[in-house]
């Protein structure tokens, strides 16, 4: 997930959020292949802030337990 700003031919900017995808830049040409995107003007700031807080909380959770459980299960199988 990340912001994507596109400068239009009339020198105005279009702000979007690209949820996932790939970008390829070759010979001053950009190709964007995305699974989902939203215009910045369509986003609700309160919902976006809540989603950010949830994502940050999930990043801070330890993942060691899941790995340990998988290793313990594979030893008993």
Automatic annotation (TrEMBL):
It comes from the Eukaryota. InterPro entries: ATP_synth_F1_dsu/esu (IPR001469), ATPsynth_dsu/esu_N (IPR036771). GO terms for molecular function: proton-transporting ATP synthase activity, rotational mechanism. GO terms for cellular component: proton-transporting ATP synthase complex. This is Uncharacterized protein. It comes from Aegilops tauschii subsp. strangulata (Goatgrass).
């Amino acid at each position: 997930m990340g912001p994507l700003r596109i400068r239009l031919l009339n020198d105005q900017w279009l702000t979007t959020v690209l949820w996932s995808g790939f970008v390829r830049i070759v010979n001053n040409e950009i190709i964007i292949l995305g699974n989902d995107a939203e215009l910045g003007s369509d986003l609700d700031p309160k919902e976006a802030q809540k989603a950010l807080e949830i994502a940050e909380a999930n990043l801070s959770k330890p993942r060691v337990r899941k790995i340990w459980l998988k290793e313990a299960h594979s030893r008993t199988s």
